[in-house]
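Re: the request from the purification team.
They wanted to know what the chain is likely to look like in 3D before they choose a buffer screen. I agreed to run a prediction and write the result into the notebook, where they can find it.
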Amino acid sequence: MVWSCLDGSMGKSVYLNDSAQITLGDFCFLAGKPNREILKTIEVPIITPDDEAWQQLIEEEFPDAKRALRYATKKEYSPNIEKLRKLASALSEGYHIERIDESNISLLCEDWSRDFISLFENEEDYLKRGRGFIAIHRGKPVSGASSYSVYRGGIEIEVDTKPEHRRKGLAAACSARLILSCLADGLLPCWDAQNLMSLSLAEKLGYVFSHAYPVWVR
């Protein structure tokens, strides 16, 4: 996500003296010298500090914010292509996968699916720069994997499934389709896990755990 902002593809940055803030979607990343003034400009819910000095300042400025852990995966990604193909085709009866295009993008308007396209300027912008795949059941999307953000050379993956359709392999199938699509075009599909369940899915898809890191959620 930081790469998306640094290369000008998405998001915005603020610099104040020796401090830096990058904002993209629901996320804010802080670096440089801790500065209370730059914290006062934050409008998004998830704050990622660069070091312990920033962490202390966040806790002082936002005492009601909750500390949580996210799980980074290594950027060096060499998956088993045959395994990805098997995951991509392993669908229960009654489901099929479609690429997100002009025929179905308007269906991604529910809370669970909105972030598949929400960071793009509009549907046209997504269709031009984004990519994603959705699982369809009875004519409606119920799961998917999409580009939460894009940068020059890759994407940050967003995955979700409607609660009543979980534990059917749909997220894995959609993610595998998206990853294969990226690799075919020479793009790096990045995966940053919100929780251990997301990390488990990432490892199933060939990602390797790097480290856990703290965020503060307002």
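For the purification team: The chain has seven helices and twelve strands.
Please add any questions underneath this entry.
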